[in-house]
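Entry 14. Ran structure prediction on the chain below.
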Amino acid sequence: MTHFKTITSFVRHPALLFKRFNSSAASESNSALVLKNKIGAVATVGINRPNKRNCVNYATAEQLVQAFEEFDQDESVCAIVLHGIGGNFCAGYDLQELSTGNASILSEKRGPMGPSQMLTKKPLIAAVSGYAVAGGFELALLCDMRVMEDTAVMGVFCRRFGVPLIDGGTVRLPALVGFSRAMDLILTGRPIKAKEAHEWGLANRVVSCGTALGQAVNLADSLKRFPQKCMQADRQSAYYATYSAKSLQDALQYEFDNGVPILEMESIHGARKFVDGIGHHGKFQLNGSSDSQK
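Output, structure tokens:
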């Protein structure tokens, strides 16, 4: 309970959140392009190029991949929050670097923005502030959920300069909002603000300006109370059904095959708790919820 109150206080006072999150980064070099932090069971990955609205260059993309890989293997982490330092989520790829004709950005199996071709085991939540446009929009789409500030803007701004969506934008956007709405954003490059994004299902939460990171951490932290293997299996099945399944039967079989092992690992224990009177009437505050972390 004390830990939850601490996190809640960060939402009310975002400055405290940055002070706490960045305390371990103080000893880092000023050239750190990605700031990695942990608060409880939540890992945060912050793009740290505020003077460039957190646009991503080759080196930043490398550090983003490393951060995602590190936290995805960390058993103490239940979820990862991606955010931008200094008021903007991410303004896309660094066009100054692209203008040099540096072909190295296309030489890796990963996407130019870094982790855009990854499917992590852990849930990903984007804390969207300021601009999340072009490749930054694609990074937001990579995440399972988006907590968006009421003043934030998303969009395919790279339409203006002939830079294609090669970090998953044309794949994930139609899956999230439908083909017709995706075409509206992809073809016109127009901005989409928080209210409309929420109406479309593109933003999962709309929050006050300056609170996206704290709210996203709260949301991520709430996931730790659930049995983790079950949650991860359901998440993987949803991704498979949406992007990889060859047919309805294929998707159903994948769900079944990957869900059945969970019965013995977590479900029987959960059923016994319910029989003992825990969680009746739809209650989510379960006694002994820390068992899910074992």
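Residues 248-275 form the longest helix (28 residues). Will compare against last week's run tomorrow.
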